[in-house]
Design brief:
Blueprint (H helix, E strand, L loop, with lengths): L8 E4 L11 E5 L2 H13 L14 H8 L4 E16 L9 H8 L7 H11 L2 E19 L12 H6 L6 E10 L7 H17 L1
Antiparallel strand pairs: 1-3, 2-3, 3-4, 4-5
Length: about 200
């Protein structure tokens, strides 16, 4: 099993996301559509696991999926086990996080703040959906508009989820600068967060 911190509250996945276990197939005709979908997951605040959760190497996708009048079919089926929630007002930062925050200065140094964000990210996740995902990718001709979403050996895979679940979707998060008490540093941090998120 795994260790759970005292502040965490586990809840049922079904109350948070209805029909989350349903398979979802998306067809991307070109790299621009795929990139737009990736960016939209962050704009909507629905950061998920799988292909749309990581920064895209567009050239790789162009070469692998979008050449010769072909498209990318992406099938994702998430299986939510539970939600995990932390009360942001009771979160106590460990000594490493406190030390990293203490190095941020009131005078804005973009390199200093970017180093923090590279190491610690921009937010602390306070609510998430945990479980597993079955994902399939296929190269298809552009005239093909549907896909057969059937998965083999699913029951055996599902039995492993309880001992090895993954973060599926971030449902709520709090920016790091909410944990900064110095007003000047807080403002600089909010600015660096904004700059960092615009780069996505």
């Amino acid at each position: 099993m795994f260790d759970m911190i005292n502040e965490a509250i586990l809840g049922p996945a079904s109350r948070v996301v209805s029909a989350y276990n349903a398979a979802r197939v998306q067809i991307f005709q070109n790299a621009s559509q795929l990139n737009a979908a990736w960016q939209q997951t962050f704009v909507d605040g629905k950061v998920r696991r799988g292909e749309l959760a990581r920064p895209l190497d567009i050239l790789t996708y162009v070469n692998s999926y979008f050449s010769h009048d072909e498209a990318l079919a992406l099938s994702q089926r998430s299986i939510g086990l539970y939600t995990m929630t932390l009360n942001a007002s009771t979160v106590e930062l460990n000594s490493f996080a406190l030390r990293a925050l203490s190095h941020l200065t009131a005078i804005f140094d973009i390199d200093l703040y970017e180093d923090f964000i590279d190491a610690w990210s921009t937010h602390i996740i306070t609510k998430s959906l945990v479980g597993g995902m079955i994902e399939e990718r296929a190269k298809v001709t552009r005239c093909f508009r549907a896909a057969n979403v059937e998965f083999d050996h699913e029951d055996e895979w599902k039995r492993t989820l309880a001992v090895g679940p993954a973060l599926l979707q971030i449902l709520e998060m709090v920016p790091w600068y909410d944990f900064v008490t110095d007003t000047a540093v807080n403002k600089r941090f909010a600015r660096s967060n904004s700059i960092s998120l615009k780069k996505c």
